[in-house]
Amino acid sequence: MFSRFSVQVGKRYALAAKGSHLVSFISRMSVMGLIISVALLILVMSIMNGFDRELRERILQVMPQATIYKREGIANPSEIMAELNTHSQVLASAPYVTLQGLLSHANQVAPVVLFGVEPALEQKVSGASEYLRSGSLQVLSGDPQGIILGGALAQQLGVTVGDKLRLIIPHGEARAAAAVQVFTVRDLLDSGTEIDNNFALINLAQASSLSPHPGRVSGIRLKVADLFSAARTVHQLSAELPPGFYGKDWSRTHGNLYQAIHMSKRLVSLLLLLLIGIAAFNLVTTLIMVVVDKEADIAILRTQGASTADILSIFLVQGGIIGLIGTGIGVLAGVVLAYTVTPAVAALERLIGFQFLHSDVYPVSYLPSELLWGDVGLIVAVALGLSFCASIYPAWRAARIPPAEALRHE
After folding, report:
1. Contact by Cβ (8 Å): 150, 198
2. Minimal CA–CA distance to 366: which of 382, 351, 380, 349?
3. What are the helix (H) ranges across 141-212?
């Protein structure tokens, strides 16, 4: 269908610098619309992929991926851990105690979710060490008065490493006095996520002594091989353990955030795909005007032996080249933006002294981005496909122009 003749003529029509100024202007606007739409879609999908990655690689590295509990606490965690570790999906396990309380320093008070951990075992299931300023959980080993605070929480309380603060743990009984303990800040955790706002770590034994069930642990944290099979893994483990044990996975604690990210990605992608469709179908206007502008040329080609298929091919080639140029430049711009948006936004925040994302509102405190080439390939296929489809009607109309009628007014 696409002969050498039709390809050459279509290429000349698409790339010609001379001609009607109005047609050239509309053609440039069509290409510009396609470039902007493709670039924006790549950028936005990369940002949504970045939020997805941060949920998996930051939040779920610090917070439990899956946990096994017992209502009155677990008295024999080592035995239960040995049984849990035999499951094919369990990579590692560690006991922990969770408490809720208040931290006080000077005139500042803030709520805190406290985790008591065993540093040697916790490092096997958690990536928290990667976000510590000193780089190790071992500062809590053998230190019952040491505490690691989230960076945002420490800023809110106005404390830094070496400062002392009070931990207040309320008891369930109405008339019981709250437990008060003095801790020394040993390190700060900066994950850049919402965790930093109310997160703290202390020694496991000390946390257990402050809990309603001293000498026991609240649960056993698991690191699983497949995050998306965590719910099934927890269900299987709970069924294999003695009565009284139950489990919870990350989809119960952070599943809403994960679903919100993916729903936003789908909705925004749909909207931007519609923009690509609008930009692509602007080619219809461009090519119709080209057909009107080139009626005499079309008639001369027909009189010189060009067939209806040749004329049809010429304008399909022209539309395809315009779509290819717009899509190609849009992909290049989108890839560059996807790779540079994180440092560019960070630099802009430092320049103007204003932070766009705050971890008390958004999951992370910076703008993440992750470019997936599969997404780029899909965007290219859709943009080129729509551009080709938009060229069909103008090409068909050009092929139906009667030569005699077109030359009558020339």
Report:
1. yes
2. 349
3. 151-157, 204-210
The beta strand positions in 13-74, using DSSP E, are: 66-74
Q: Are 141 and 204 in contact (CB under 8 A)?
A: no
Give the domain ranges of the chain.
4-57+257-407, 65-253
Nearest to 122 by CA among 142, 139, 137: 137
Query: Angle formed by the axes of helices 255-293 and 308-352, to 10°?
Result: 140
Q: How many CB atoms lie within 10 A of CB 300?
A: 15
> Residue 329: CA atoms inside 13 Å, Cβ hemisphere, count?
14
169 Cα distance to chain centroid: 36
Token pair listed for 37: 């739409």
pLDDT digits (tens, 9 = 90+) for 165-207: 999 888 655 455 667 889 999 999 888 878 888 889 999 999 9
Q: Which residues pair with 98 in a beta bridge?
A: 115
For tokens 């408490």, the residue is 99
Strands 146-150 and 179-189: parallel
CB atoms within 10 A of CB 28: 12
Q: Two tokens at 356?
A: 């766009």
CB 219 within 8 A of CB 176: no
| Ramachandran sector of residue 79 (left: φ over 0; alpha: ψ -120 to 50; beta: rest) | alpha
* β-pair partners for 248: 67
Chain centre distance of CA 73: 36
**Ramachandran angles phi, psi of 16, nearest 5°:** -65, 135
Q: Which residues contact 292 (CB under 8 A, 6 or more apart)?
A: none
Q: Which residue has the tokens 């959980």?
A: 137
Three-class secondary structure of residue 374 per DSSP: helix
Task: Give the whole-angstrom CA distance, residue 222 versus residue 126.
Answer: 9
Its pTM surpasses 0.85: no
pLDDT tens by residue, 113-139: 999 999 889 888 888 888 888 767 888
Region of 368 (left: φ > 0; alpha: ψ -120 to 50; beta: rest) is beta
